[in-house]
Write a structure and sequence with these properties.
about 100 residues, mainly alpha, Helix Hairpins, 4 helices, about 0% strand
Length: about 100
C-alpha cells in the first residue's frame, strides 16, 4: 500500500503505475501490515537521525489512518495511553527485562 500521491509522482517520472482501490476489509488488513513494515523501517533507520524522523512520520501517518479505518476514537486511545503509563510506567528508565525467576 502506498500514500495517496505516489501514483501521480510515478506518472511525473514518465512511468505507468498499476493500482486498484482496496475494499474496506482489504484496506484495514493492509494498514495493519503497513504498521509492521513501517516499524521495521524505523528500526533500520536508527543510525541516521533524519531517516529516523522520516520513518517515524510515516509510522504516525499509518497509525492515524488505522485509527480512522477502524473507526476508533483517538482521544479515547490517548486517554488509555496515559492510564497505562500511570499504571505500568513508560520507557523513560531504559529498563530491559532479561528474565523472570
Amino acid at each position: 500500500m502506498v500514500r495517496d500521491n505516489i501514483p501521480e509522482i510515478i506518472k511525473k517520472d514518465n512511468k505507468i503505475p498499476k493500482t486498484r482501490i482496496l475494499s474496506n476489509e482489504e484496506y484495514q488488513y493492509e494498514l495493519l501490515k503497513k504498521l509492521v513494515e513501517e516499524s521495521n523501517e524505523v528500526l533500520r533507520a536508527k543510525e541516521d537521525k533524519n531517516d529516523l524522523i522520516k520513518e517515524l512520520v510515516d509510522l504516525l501517518e499509518v497509525i492515524d489512518s488505522t485509527i480512522k479505518a477502524f473507526s476508533l476514537d483517538k482521544d479515547e486511545i490517548l486517554i488509555l495511553k496515559d492510564k497505562r503509563k500511570q499504571e505500568r510506567g513508560g520507557f523513560d528508565k531504559q529498563i530491559f527485562l532479561e528474565s523472570v525467576e
